[in-house]
Design brief:
Layout lengths: L1 H29 L1 E4 L7 E2 L20 E7 L7 E9 L5 E6 L8 E5 L3 E8 L3 E9 L9 E7 L6 H21 L9 H13 L12 H39 L1
Antiparallel strand pairs: 1-8, 2-8, 3-7, 3-9, 4-5, 4-8, 6-7
Length: 251
């Protein structure tokens, strides 16, 4: 009986050890971790070679954001979670996980021929490193950054520039290119028109002109002739009167 009990205990211990071994092996296979491809480290969304917005909801990244899409090659396992390190545009290092409902960054895991993961982050961040937990054993030795979706620049700066250029250039060029109606008459023409009437009074007979002197002198000459004639006539009469008186005295 003692030998039988000892043999039974040995079988139980062996079974428990075997179960533990299988459990550990199963856990290890379920927690397979693959790193990010070395060639895809230290890159920005704008600087990555392949741009596409496939797998990004809505088909584009919102303004001021970048979309990132990762793929697990070999197509023999699926993403369970991803842990990614980024350097922000401010220079700090931050870690994000996919999926994560607790952070403000939209993300998700999808299957489209191969297992893919995506996330939308603020524009200008740099992917530094990452690792992925996959669903089982895989022939993949790393996962890839398959493409990025750089977001468009914020539209708020666009309309502010257009009106400033159009308003500053239009009024300054038009006066210089086309003369105003007030400039159509040259100063020389206006001076000629103003001096033309003033030259007409210089004709003879006008007041203040060169021909006015003969008209004013004609009455003076007539008066002079009349006065001279009167004096001459008076002198003659005086001489005749003296002659008569002398003749009478002599008689």
């Amino acid at each position: 009986m003692s030998h039988a009990r000892w043999f039974g205990r040995l079988l139980v211990s062996f079974g428990a050890a075997s179960a533990a071994t299988f459990l550990v092996a199963g856990t290890a296979s379920a927690a397979t971790v693959v790193p990010l491809h070395d060639a895809h480290r230290n890159t920005t969304a704008a600087g990555f070679s392949t741009h596409s917005c496939d797998q990004i909801p809505g088909g584009s990244a919102p303004a001021g954001s970048d979309g990132w899409v990762f793929v697990l090659p070999k197509n023999d396992a699926d993403f369970v979670s991803l842990t990614l390190q980024f350097r922000t545009s401010g220079g700090t290092t931050t870690t994000v996980t996919i999926p994560n409902a607790g952070d403000p960054y939209p993300d998700g895991i999808t299957t489209n021929g191969a297992s893919k993961a995506w996330i939308v982050l603020p524009a200008g961040w740099t992917l530094l490193d990452g690792s992925a937990v996959v669903s089982g054993e895989t022939k993949a030795t790393f996962f890839n950054l398959t493409h990025t979706c750089p977001g468009k620049a914020s539209p708020s700066g666009t309309p502010t520039k257009t009106p400033t250029k159009s308003h500053t250039k239009t009024p300054t060029k038009k006066p210089s290119d086309k003369p105003s109606p007030s400039d159509s008459v040259s100063p020389s023409e206006s001076e000629t028109a103003s001096t033309t009437p003033s030259s007409s009074p210089s004709t003879p007979g006008s007041v203040g002109g060169s021909g006015g002197l003969p008209r004013t002198g004609s009455p003076v000459l007539a008066m002079f002739v009349v006065g001279a004639s009167t004096v001459t006539g008076g002198t003659l009469l005086l001489l005749l009167s003296l002659r008569r008186r002398r003749a009478q005295t002599a008689a």
